[in-house]
Amino acid sequence: MTAIRYAHWVRRGAAFVAASVSIAMLVMGSGLDAFRGLPRGEYDFLLAPRALFCVIGAFMAGLGFLPRNPLGRMLQMMGGAAVIATVLTGIVLNIRDMKSGFETIGWVPLQLFLSGEVLFVLLALALMLQAMRHYLSGQLLVLVGIAFLLSAVSGNLDRSEAFLGLADPQYLLAGVALTLSVLLYQPHRGALRIFLAGHRASGVARLQLCLGIAGPAIVGILTVGAVNVPVVQIYGGLIVSNMIAFNMVVIVLNAVYSERSDISRRKLERALARQALRDGLTGLFNRVMLRRRFDRAVQRAQSDREFFSLLIFDLDYFKKINDMGGHEIGDQALVRVAHVISDCLEREDTAARLGGEEFAVILRNSDMHRAELRAEQFRQAIAALQVRMRNGRWQYLTTSIGIAQWMEGESFDQSYARADAALYHAKAQGRNRVCVAPMAPVAVGETTTTTTAAVDLDFTIPPLHLVKASFK
Q1: Which sign, positive or negative, has the C-alpha torsion 292, 295, 300, 301?
Q2: Which residues form the GGDEF domain (predicted)?
């Protein structure tokens, strides 16, 4: 089971815990309690009633169980908007009473009083953003909300009376579980995908995150905790909480942008590798890759005792096309010929452009007879192509093909020389035809080839190749 699958189970478990604790506290009636240590109801105007906290917590936890289909995402966005509207309405209605309360019990940062409300608003916004597939933005909002959650943690540790209901352990447990469930909404998306992956960069990011949390926490415990002054402890706890949240946001952003930079670098490397092994105009392999595929075919032929053949193509009268239509028309013709050759390839065949109007194909598992039939298929498919010249006339393309079946112990250069000799013989016999080289290395002038004219073979092209070859 992968880390991401574990994260899905953790998300479901955290949502269940948040819902269970919230419902339990609501049923037991403790949701209506006011500040701990203060007379019941005396300063409860400073916060939304804790019963409302329980209801919102259970409601948001339930949103985490909705399916990830369009309907579920729409319900999550509507639910998040309802939570935000409810919390903000409560804050607006109690602004005057909050001011009076600040004058009564003394001023502390607003984060101290509104940690629960702000946390709910941030989690609701994060849930809405992730439902709209803005995963990174939603996860960053959750990390910001952790600062307010940690404020409640420090308040619970300091037994402060100036905190919201989240300072109570049961509410704090529900808040932590709810935050975790929203953070793990889609663990295989956004920044979480980086931290949950198994490669080395993810391990470095996880280590940085642990140090970014543990460092300020340890320093805060050793310094703030040693000062027995409540006000200093409160402010110190807020500083440490904000520092931890800030560190998490910075580390996550650094991990995201580092991964994006790494992805861009890998794309550039793949593009450079492609340029080094492929022809820039047609997208076919170049001569370097053709040699590699030839060597691989030789190894398979020696181990599996199978035949393979090398075909050399040369477009007939291509200089005339360049002269009459220009190099732009010539390039279009080369690209179309490359498409036709690719369409006629079978699995594990290799096509390459050698330069100019010359192409080559390695046919796997093809003896001389089968290679001759396949070459005629290529020839007929190319012969169905036409290009439009500058004068508006259409010019058909033809090609001459030389075939050399690989012989035991033969190198690429030797096979290429025999196929090239057969190609020149096809040119000498009138072009637009297929010639097969003899099974012996001989000079070009002494080549004895089997010549096959286009009209002598009872061989038809499959309809698919005719359709693809007729584009303009």
Answers
A1: positive
A2: 306-439
Looking at the predicted structure, is the pLDDT value of residue 469 above 50?
no
Q: Are 45 and 164 in contact (CB under 8 A)?
A: no
Spatial contact of 362 and 290, defined as CB atoms under 8 Å apart: yes
Do 98 and 46 contact (CB within 8 A), yes or no?
A: yes
Cα–Cα distances (Å) from 46 to 40, 153, 237, in that order, read: 13, 19, 20
Contact 184, 7 (CB under 8 A): yes
109-165 pLDDT per residue, tens: 566 667 778 888 999 999 999 999 999 999 999 999 888 888 777 665 555 444 444
The mean per-residue pLDDT over the stretch 325-346 comes to 91
Q: Which alpha helices (DSSP H) does 278-358 contain, by range? A: 287-304, 318-344
CA atoms within 13 A on the CB side of 396: 9
**What's the whole-number mean pLDDT along residues 203-215?**
89
Please, are residues 332 and 338 in contact by the beta-carbon 8 Å criterion? Answer: no
Predicted local distance difference test score (pLDDT) of residue 434:
94
447 neighbors 421 (Cβ within 8 angstroms):
yes
- CA–CA separation, 126 and 416 (whole Å): 63
In the chain, the amino acid numbered 388 is R
The identity of residue 364, as a single letter, is: R
Strand partners, 315: 399
**DSSP run (H or E) holding 102:** helix 95-105
Asked whether residue 391 carries a pLDDT value surpassing 90, the answer given is no
Q: In a 10 Å sphere around its CB, with 0-12 CB exposed, 13-18 middle and 19+ buried, how is residue 277 labelled? A: middle
Torsion angle of the four alpha carbons 323, 328, 332, 335, in this order, in degrees rounded to the nearest 10: 100
Residue-level length of the chain = 472
Token duo for residue 16: 């269940």
Bridge partner list, 451: 435
Averaged pLDDT, 389-407: 89
CA distance 127 to 95: 27
Tokens standing for 459?
């061989």
**C-beta atoms surrounding 276 within 10 Å:** 10
**What percentage of the chain has pLDDT greater than the value 90?**
35
Which single residue is written with the structure tokens 């269940």? 16
Give the separation between CA 375 and CA 41, rounded to whole angstroms.
93
Contacts of 361 (CB under 8 A, 6+ apart): 310, 311, 313, 341, 345, 349, 350, 351, 352, 378
C-alpha span between 377 and 374 (Å, rounded)? 5
Q: Cα–Cα distances in Å, from 468 out to 153, 346, 472?
A: 68, 16, 10
Transcribe 74-86 into DSSP letters. HHHHHHHHHHHHH
State how far the Cα of 141 lies from the Cα of 249, in Å rounded to an integer.
Answer: 9
Q: How many CA atoms are closer than 13 Å to the CA of 217, on its beta-carbon side?
A: 16
Tracing tokens 């001389």 back to the chain, one arrives at 368
- Give the pairing of strands 433-436 and 450-453: antiparallel
